[in-house]
Design a protein that fits this description.
The chain is α/β, with parallel strands linked by helices and 303 residues long. It is globular. The protein has a domain at 27-198: Alkaline Phosphatase, subunit A, CATH 3.40.720. 30% of the residues lie in helices and 10% in strands. It is built from eight helices and seven strands. It has helices at 14-18, 48-55, 80-90, 140-165, 222-230, 236-246, 271-288, 297-300; strands spanning 35-38, 59-61, 96-101, 172-177, 249-252, 256-259, 262-265. Helix 3 packs parallel to helix 4 (140-165) and helix 6 runs antiparallel to helix 7. Residues 10-227 form the Sulfatase N-terminal domain.
């Protein structure tokens, strides 16, 4: 659901506020049987246990299930190399894996991984040259540690892709980090809005077709892009989102839509896009704030 359509647009955890109000789940995780979620931390926050249960997720793996957990030196967090090696092992048991990394989560410490050859070069004048009172502050040495940590992430992901290439079966994997670095808070104007953007890629280990561009997308369209590019069977709800994505829509607000990275108000939208945008808003309202008369098959029956 688009954050802009919430009763309180500033809400950051829509599952807590809305998910349990809906009688139907539209999670991509349950489009493939034998699914699991791997998170090398805890599920006690943000109502995760109840939400994943309602989604129909088969198994949750937390740090309590990782007796051999290895942490990245200087961070106190599970290393991405450990996590990706664990993912490689679990692929043989689960056809869909949702993985949330913790390696690069704040807080950060200065001087982490100073022994590696990579040295980040950061634009001056944005981050503080002096230590901050908070470990979550904008101290430039925190940022340098963060970017050195990303080198380790890159290496781990590179090995994971090589491991997936060797699998004889199709791999269904969603892998992401647990939100943006804390030292970017309040830096939106200086970084021209890029603090709210994150890189992503979609990869298939078999039957890859033409290369798909990594479009600038609202998070609500990442799954539709995955479904469209991967030619998955989908539900009517996700098909509606796929149609929006294929029309070039990258985000929806209460008064218009983003086409690419340009905002277009409702009155200037093409008629075909305007109808789809209206359908999306009506479905969202009916599902979360009304009686959900649309019914479960619209959200979870695949065609």
């Amino acid at each position: 659901m688009s954050l802009e359509l919430h009763q309180q647009p500033t809400v950051t955890s829509p599952y807590i506020e809305y998910f349990e109000k809906s009688s139907g789940s539209s999670s991509i995780l349950t489009l493939v049987e034998q699914n699991a979620v791997i998170h090398p931390y805890t599920y006690s926050l943000y109502n995760r246990v109840d939400v994943y249960d309602k989604m129909g997720v088969s198994k949750l793996f937390s740090q309590e299930d990782m007796s051999d957990l290895e942490k990245l030196k200087g961070t106190g967090r599970a290393s991405d190399r450990y996590l990706t090696d664990l993912v490689d092992k679990k692929m043989d048991d689960y056809r869909m894996l949702n993985v949330m990394s913790m390696q690069n989560h704040s807080p950060y410490s200065p001087g982490v991984l100073e022994d590696i050859t990579y040295e980040p070069v950061l634009k001056p004048g944005i981050l503080s040259e002096e230590p901050t009172a908070s470990k979550y502050g904008d101290y430039i040495e925190y940022a340098k540690s963060y970017f050195r940590q990303l080198v380790k992430t890159d290496s781990a992901i590179e090995k994971l892709i090589a491991d997936m290439e060797d699998k004889k079966y199709d791999v269904n994997l969603i892998f992401y980090g647990d939100h943006a670095p804390s030292f970017l808070r309040g830096k939106g104007a200086q970084l021209q809005g890029h603090t709210n953007q994150a890189p992503y890629f979609i990869y298939q280990n078999h039957d890859r077709g033409d290369t798909s561009d990594a479009d600038l997308l609202s998070p609500m369209f990442l799954v539709p892009k995955l479904l469209a590019d991967g030619q998955y069977k989908t539900t009517p709800y996700y098909y509606m989102l796929v149609l929006l994505y294929q029309k070039g829509v990258t985000g929806i607000t209460s008064s218009g839509a983003y086409i690419g990275d340009a905002f277009v108000p409702d009155e200037a939208l093409g008629e075909d896009i305007k109808v789809l945008v209206s359908d999306y808003r009506n479905v969202s309202y009916n599902r979360y704030f009304d009686k959900n008369s649309i019914g479960r098959p619209f959200f979870n029956k695949q065609f």
